[in-house]
Amino acid sequence: MLGFTKLASETESPPSHLTLSCFTTEGVLDPDFAVKGHLILRNLPIEELEDDSTELAIQPDGKIVISATYYAPGNQSRVSGVLYRVTPKGELDRSFNTTGRVNVFLNDGADPTWVNALQLMGDKILIAGDVTHAGATKAYFARYNQDGTLDRTFGEPANPGVYVLDIADTTLHALVKTADDGFVAIGKSGIDRGEDGHQLPVKGLLVGRHADGQPNLHFNRGEPVLTQLDQHLGDNWHAGFIDADRRITVVSTHSSVHFGRFLDNGLVDTSFGNNGYVGEDTLTVAKPAFMQRRLGNRFVFGGNPLGLGGALGVLWAYWS
Fold first, then answer.
1. Residue 235 belongs to domain with CATH number
2. CB of 139 closer than 8 Å to CB of 207
């Protein structure tokens, strides 16, 4: 379980440190994991943890891969992504970049880089997010080997290991593995907030790729899919899953909760809801958002809709 902690010995307003906790099948902290069931991954002196930026995946060998984003103290626009790998005993895995930690440096670390999504692809580690270069923020995905090095067989020959989407003001929030070992990356296109903090209309973004990062020509002829199922504020897809019929169900938490479903070729599935759209009349906090496919053509959504007293964590179940 991922979370964060503030250390009492620090300043009056201590920063958050990433924490990983392990529980037994009986629901109690595992005394054999790290220190009494808790591992604290302390910030470096030059960084602070970005809230709600962490993801976790467990390898078949029990090792735990974690992604997170940090920012420079006093400058939240200066961000950098990080990958950790932890052993089943709760120790940093020294076979991963010799330290257990990899800094996600795109363009030699000169560009602010967010890591928003993490997916294991066989023995590879796939991540996605956005990178800002020359004033333009663009979605990217990158793939790493088991030793923490960039997988140079992935992506574009001119930039091995990484693929940057050539559309400004885009970001990716989630990765969904497909049946043929490829993936669909989901997110948004457009600036979602004005200078006054009010939300602006955006378009949803879906990108289909083969396992090697090359465009999947069956998915919208290899081109990104841009959507606006919600006619008011548009779509900002944050989570999704693929069902047995290879249909992709996604959720947007841009102001309000709504769902969309797409066929495996990227077209809207008009048999779902109202021409591919199902909306909930409730405002919500953007992060976190969770979707899980269940048996019997059902799925579960988890998020934080806004109630009268503030955000309220919920689980909603749906027929698909």
1. 2.120.10
2. yes
Looking at the 3D structure of the chain, how many domains does it have? 1
Distant-in-sequence, close-in-space partners of 103: CB < 8 Å, separation ≥ 6: 80, 81, 82, 109
- Is the pTM here over 0.90, yes or no? yes
Amino acid at 218: H
How many residues make up the chain in this entry?
Answer: 320
Instruction: Note the pLDDT tens digit of each residue in 134-179.
Output: 889 999 999 999 999 999 999 888 889 999 999 999 999 999 999 8
Residue 182 lies in a domain: yes
CA distance 238 to 254: 9
**Residue 23 falls within a domain, yes or no?**
no
Structure tokens of 71?
């920012």
Tell whether 248 is covered by a domain.
yes
Whether residue 55 is contained in a domain is answered as: no
For residue 297, give Cα distances in angstroms to 175, 227, 249, 317: 21, 24, 12, 11
Of 217, 190, 185, 216, which Cα lies nearest the Cα of 203? 190
pLDDT for 180-209, tens place per residue?
899 999 999 998 877 777 778 899 999 999
For residue 207, the enclosing domain spans 90-100+107-319
- Report the run of H or E that residue 305 belongs to, with start and end: strand 298-307
Could you give the CA distance from residue 2 to residue 140 in angstroms, rounded to a whole number?
A: 24
